[in-house]
Amino acid sequence: MRPPCDPSKFIAEAVKSIPPSGIRRFFDLVSGLEDIISLGVGEPDFITPWHIREMCIHSLEKGQTSYTSNSGLPELRDELTRTYYRRYGLDYNPASEVLITTGVSEALDIAIRAVVNPGDEVIVVQPSYVAYVPSVILAGGKPVIVSTHREDDFSLTAETLKPAITSKTKAIVLNFPNNPTGAIMEQEGMEDIADLVVENDLFVISDEVYECLTYGGKHVPFSSLEGMKDRTVMLNGFSKAYAMTGLRLGFAMGAPDIIHSMMMIHQYSMLCAPITAQIGAIEALRNGKVEMERMVREYDRRRHFIVKGFNSIGLECFNPKGAFYAFPYIGDTGLSSSDFAERLLNEKRVVTIPGDVFGEAGEGFLRCAYAASLDDLRKAIEGMGDFVDGLKR
Amino acid sequence: MDEIIRHILEILENDARTSPEEIATLTGTSAQEISQTIAKLEETGVIRHYKTIVDWDLVGENYVYAVIELKVTLERNQGYQVIAERIYKFPEVRSVRLLSGNYDISLTVRGKSMKDVAFFVAEKIATLDQIQSTSTHFVLKTYKEDGVILHEPESIVRLPITF
Questions:
Q1: Which phi and psi angles does A343 have, rounded to 5°?
Q2: pLDDT for B121-132, tens place per residue?
Q3: Do A304 and B25 lie within an 8 Å CB cutoff?
Q4: Which tens digits make up the pLDDT trace of A283-317?
Q5: Is residue B151 predicted with pLDDT exceeding 90?
């Protein structure tokens, strides 16, 4: 008889070293509960605009269900380069400087794997999206955390970045507009960071998936700064701007060597992004501006509503300039982010995400997505107001 | 267009009952500024009217609607405006539009019964001097009215937490 086996001994050390996900734990707490109001959703509450869905359906009817080239449909890459030239004057070659990926998640993973050698340090700016640190660890790199603060509007400055740079630093991961704070970066601050990047010969991985969701200001891609195009790989996708989360379509734009290296990994893992989503994305770029702007205006109204709401119930809230998250400060209540979010869920059935899920710098805050109806936002604010009042008694 | 004006018009087009205070919250301005802007928009005719879209079927009031296509012969020195004004004064007429294509004018007419609508078209519209021909299409069911869907759409299930 063959002896029993412990499968866990086969698991790679890199996977074992990934810190447990706070968001996963919270997901388990929420699952199964009914009659909840969720501000925990990091996706638009709009359905993909009909004209985009219609193009996807039409392509399926025509039988377009094949692989595409590894890099993605040439029409989509052409459309993307035209879009970025028009928006920012950025001049990318569709044949060699664009890669279509399965969501920005894949683009992030392969960008880091294409750049990081074992032992390389990669600076991750927090609070930020939960995948950056694990992606660096899985690539054998060492994440080095730089925190942003409420006092600086959660913006990154060259001064806060400088002490984290060592001789082993290879790259910086940026994410503006930011998930979870909603912060953006002003061009002036970015120029100082660009100088630092050149001085220390670093590479920048810039996740700009919330690019189109800015309020009152124009987004500045890091690669559009002088001398930064070849030092930056810009990651982006269609999920947030065009409400296409489930279609899983992202892209990377950067120097030919970087894109080629990413494509080498991509072709042996994903092979290519789904063709149906790529056809939908072409339609989004060609004709999606009006619907996208309509959604942004709606988010803008909800942003005003939720920020005013939080301030009115005594939770000081930084005014986000991008994405669709509000990040109210709950530190004055005496509860930790996790305790606050867990008790709020159990007592008022309102789902928020504890800020510490996005790194230690997020402790004392909650991520509240305003990609929810005004009715839900109103009910959530009322529930949170009652909860905060109860804490004072 | 001024961004605030666009916000106000979109919010009111979506829900005319939204108060100036609420619009002020949604746009980050003051209620006074919103009230003044709305008053100006009303005065200048940008905002023409506030109305409610009713699903009369649900309260058992079975109105009959019909779309009437009209071919018109214009008289010397008279444009379409004259015939349109003549027609839109009838309370049965809900909308009047000048169209391109095979017909000149399209009406939407509401009556209590098909007979009502048929008599109205035959006696009041078809008998006008300028009307060459009419073509009446009765509405069997309305699925969407002025941007509002008249049935409960299926809700989409989203996960309560995502990244």
A1: -70, -40
A2: 999 999 999 999
A3: yes
A4: 999 999 999 999 999 999 999 999 999 999 999 99
A5: no
pLDDT tens, residue by residue, B77-114: 788 999 999 999 999 999 999 999 999 999 999 999 99
pLDDT at B78: 82
Total domain count, chain B: 2
Asked if B161's CB is within 8 angstroms of A301's CB, the reply is: no
In whole angstroms, what is the distance from residue A157 CA to residue A161 CA?
A: 6
Nearest residue to A107 (alpha-carbon basis) of A269, A230, A228, A241: A269
- Check CB contact of B1 with chain A, cutoff 8 Å: no
The closest of A321, A291, A316, A289 to A304, measured between CA atoms, is A321
B10 interface with A at CB cutoff 8 Å:
yes
B155 in a domain, yes or no? no
A1 inside domain: no
Question: For residues A356 and A127, what is the distance between their CA atoms, to the nearest angstrom?
Answer: 8
Smallest Cα–Cα separation from A173: which of A198, A207, A140, A208? A207
Pick the last residue of a domain from A288, A304, A336.
A288
Task: Collect all residues of chain B within an 8 Å Cβ-Cβ radius of residue A245.
Answer: 162
Q: What is the pTM of this model?
A: 0.90
